[in-house]
Design brief:
Strand order of the largest sheet: 3-2-1-4-5
Largest sheet: 5 strands, parallel
Shape: globular
Order of helices and strands: EHHEHHEHHEE
CATH superfamily: 5'-nuclease
Helix content: 55-70%
Strand content: 5-15%
Number of helices: 6
Distance between the termini: 26 Å
Structural class: alpha/beta
CATH architecture: 3-Layer(aba) Sandwich
Number of strands: 5
CATH topology: Rossmann fold
């Protein structure tokens, strides 16, 4: 299966907030549910979705969002050593947020497109494939 994806926190937030690009994320989630693709999410980006939701909408909504993400057809990848070192390498080479480097590093390691609308990923476009939304 060569059409796998990594979700950036931007993509999940777009989905949950029903913002432009959310429909594309829903289509990718449906494809994963139907076994047509694999979806990955770094635990660092999962944490980013959680803290953003908590900050914007409160602890109850953040916990609800966490439970929903855990039910989605997404493989959450821990920040183990090789992923962390690849993220650190990307952070050293490109002026982007460290959490974004985890999504990019996971994309590199899984040979997957990163689903995002975050303009920061333009700086990483020579290193990782991006599926632009929004």
């Amino acid at each position: 299966m060569d059409n796998s994806y990594v979700l950036d926190s931007y993509a999940l937030i777009t989905h949950f907030e029903d913002e432009p690009g959310g429909e594309r994320v829903r289509n990718i989630l449906k494809a994963a549910r139907d076994g047509k693709t694999k979806l990955y999410l770094s635990v660092i980006n999962f944490g980013e979705v959680y803290y953003n939701t908590m900050r914007e909408r409160g602890i109850e909504k953040a916990n609800e969002t966490k439970l929903i993400v855990e039910q989605l057809p997404i493989i959450v990848i821990d920040a183990e050593k090789s992923l962390t070192m690849e993220a650190a390498r990307l952070k050293a080479l490109y002026p982007v947020a460290y959490a974004d480097c985890f999504a990019a590093a996971l994309g590199v390691m899984k040979k997957s497109k990163v689903v995002t609308g975050d303009p920061e990923f333009k700086k990483l476009s020579k290193t990782v494939k991006v599926e632009w939304i929004g």
